[in-house]
């Protein structure tokens, strides 16, 4: 069976036809303008979309149901887009951040299924911390900057038994200050959710089966935070830990002035509150024993650092 190496307007029209969508519906599905779809289809095989749009189309085909894929192959003479059936590997493209040494994983740019309605959204490539920021990680920041430590640390020092537990009692501003010091950012709500659910839009990081035992939530009766690498069976498609339970995570996304989104649920949360697609927010000054964070970084920025081009 022939492989089409790149999309042209002809394959784009075939995909829209196979999906049985109007130009307006197809444009909304891809996250592009109706005018762009019309332009591609009008020029047929004489136009090739930009690489970012090639990736969007690859993802749209990969996520289509079997009947749509069969119709697409029929409309294109049995051809399929090269790489369209690639399954994203778990925990691939791991690196260590050059400043903090924390392990991060790359999440390639593509569409993912966002929110309770599974709306297709495009997110550019980025890296995200595999683990929550721990007390030991945060202590380096406090020592380097003189930032005020969390209120439960005695004499400015965290309890030794909590070294590898997520830092808590931090406001959004504390989390943002750490991220800036580390040369990172807080993840946006879209970045966080994509890393939790993968491009296929699983309900939970591990899949669609509700399994409270795979995370630290109220039903398990742990009654406190757990070490950041505890729940290996609950990792996301990218190998990221604790995207359900343990602690709520501060995000960069502002919901209203002075309030920021949080995701993931916590050890204090009921399991149904830990679903990654759910919305939650809080005042930036909120500070509690079940709220922490992890960091992210744009792919281009981190790769320049890693390759020594800055």
UniProtKB/TrEMBL annotation:
Coiled-coil residues: none
Listed CDD domains: HTH_XRE (cd00093)
Domain HTH cro/C1-type: 12-41
Any one Pfam family match given in the protein's UniProt record, by short name: HTH_3
Protein name: SUMF1/EgtB/PvdO family nonheme iron enzyme
Organism: Saccharopolyspora ipomoeae
